[in-house]
Design a protein that fits this description.
three-stranded antiparallel beta sheet; 8 helices
């Protein structure tokens, strides 16, 4: 199973320029949330010694920082009319949009683990604030569905600070390798193909898709779980 998951992740990269796609095999599209995912995967790979995928992540993130200001994705062709021509890297195009909180938090997470990644904005204060209100948030999401879109940001804030999430959010760790890791709980249940990052699905709300998304979330979960006993 691990070998198949690894191959699907590798197939999500364009090996000519290391650009990453949320689909497997790789395709050029408007996916712009690669930074936080690649940062987490890079650290997880470093923990278990998967140098091949760690280097793919590092090269992809390095090109992302070089291809243009506030680049969120790049490729050898534009995914839409809003993409810009790179002035610094020949024959590449990129989507310009400032990084969201998750991208910057996980860039800091990578740096904390000795891997140099561009950090556009320090999110430590934000992460501390999220961790402070997380106990109440864990109860609120049971009754206010609109708040659930922020679950992953709350969990990543705890990952950045090396903190265990509150008990009120622990139900989200059920059959969820990444969130279980935050609670230091063993978990071997792989994620269904509900999207590029199924870890953030609220229990019972994810729907399996026909398109084949990258298995990056599964690989992160497996590698983080492997490092639990270390």
């Amino acid at each position: 199973m691990l070998a198949e998951i690894r191959e699907k992740v590798i197939a999500s990269f364009n090996k000519d320029n290391c650009s990453f796609s949320n689909m497997s095999p790789y395709e050029v599209n408007n996916f712009i949330d690669c930074k936080y995912m690649l940062c987490i995967l890079m650290v997880a790979c470093n923990n278990v010694g998967d140098d091949e995928i760690r280097d793919l992540c590092f090269n992809s993130l390095s090109n992302l920082s070089l291809v243009g200001d506030d680049a969120r994705a790049y490729a050898s062709e534009p995914a839409s009319g809003t993409w810009r021509v790179s002035r610094t890297m020949a024959k590449l195009f990129y989507k310009e949009k400032p990084q969201a909180s998750a991208g910057n938090m996980m860039a800091q997470y990578a740096c904390k683990h000795g891997i140099t990644v561009e950090v556009k904005s320090n999110k430590t204060k934000l992460a501390k604030m999220l961790c402070l209100v997380a106990p109440a948030y864990g109860y609120a999401i049971r009754y206010i569905p609109k708040l659930r879109q922020h679950i992953n940001t709350f969990m990543l804030a705890h990952l950045l600070l090396g903190m265990k999430p509150p008990e009120s959010m622990q139900f989200l760790a059920q059959d969820n390798m990444i969130y279980s890791y935050l609670y230091r709980l063993p978990c071997s249940a792989t994620y269904p193909n509900t999207g590029i990052w199924p870890a953030k699905d609220y229990p019972g709300e994810g729907r399996v898709k026909e398109k084949q998304y990258s298995s990056i979330c599964n690989l992160v979960g497996i590698y983080l779980q492997q490092s639990l006993g270390e």
